[in-house]
Amino acid sequence: MVNEDKLAFRFDCGAVWLNLLATKGRTFSTTPVERLATPGRLAEWLEHCELSPAQPPDQDDLHQARALRELLRTLALATVEEQPPPADAVSALAAFLAGHDDLIQLTVGGRLRRRPPASTAHALARIARQAVDHMTGSDRLALKRCPEDDCRGVFVDPPGRRRWCPSPACATRGRVRALRARRNAAALRSNDDQTPAPAQ
User: Fold this and answer.
1) Fewer CB within 10 A of the end CB, N or C, for the chain?
2) Separation in Å, CA 67 to CA 43, 92, 96, 108, 126
3) d(Cα 84, Cα 61) in Å, to the nearest integer?
4) Residue 34 carries which DSSP code?
């Protein structure tokens, strides 16, 4: 079995906004894993994404980050499944973005950089805009959903070869289940072969 730190952040989903979705693990299980448990954890995650705001996140920012994450999750799953997105989710995202203009200011310091976001809300707005661009353009075609029912994580898979999300636990559970199903099917076939034919 895979030993995995359940509280470790995941940065392997293919885009910052998808990594935000992964800050909650096993989302659809009875025991989801909340990786953004405190404002400090949110600050740590934003720093890793090079989105540290001028002011550190507070509890309200944490609530807003979690709410945006679940809003984007709803829209992402609808996008991957090629279903119409819920109108209320679209309206909520549009309202959030309308309330957080973020002028692009570029600087050069060894490489091209963008000015840090003024607040956590502005950092989240940058993530939300990335998500909108991804879900409304042709890049959406490379999005895929993990088949594990308790996960359903969305990730980028341009070649279309990956079956599970990047979490080793999902792949392991899926493979174990598939192996058991094959063994059960083989056992049933073997039993059928050994059943004597009815007398003529």
Assistant:
1) C
2) 16, 10, 11, 34, 15
3) 29
4) E
Residues 85 and 70: beta-carbon distance below 8 Å: no
| CA gyration radius, the chain | 22
Whole-number Å distance between alpha carbons of 120 and 117: 7
State the Cα torsion 109-113-119-122 to the nearest 10°: 170
Q: What is the DSSP string of 55-103?
A: S---HHHHHHHHHHHHHHHHHHHHHHTT-PPPHHHHHHHHHHHHT----
Q: What's the pLDDT tens digit per position in 17-71?
A: 999 999 999 999 999 999 999 999 999 999 999 999 999 999 999 999 999 999 9
* Angle, helices 120-136/39-48, rounded to nearest 10 degrees: 60
What DSSP element (H or E) covers 174? helix 168-194
CB 21 within 8 A of CB 73: yes
* pLDDT for res 196: 64
Kindly give, in sequence order, each residue whose CB lies less than 8 Å from that of residue 20, ignoring residues fewer than 6 positions away.
45, 65, 68, 69, 72, 127
The token pair at 4 is: 């995995």
The tokens 């740590």 sit on which residue?
A: 44
What is the percentage of the chain residues whose pLDDT exceeds 90?
72
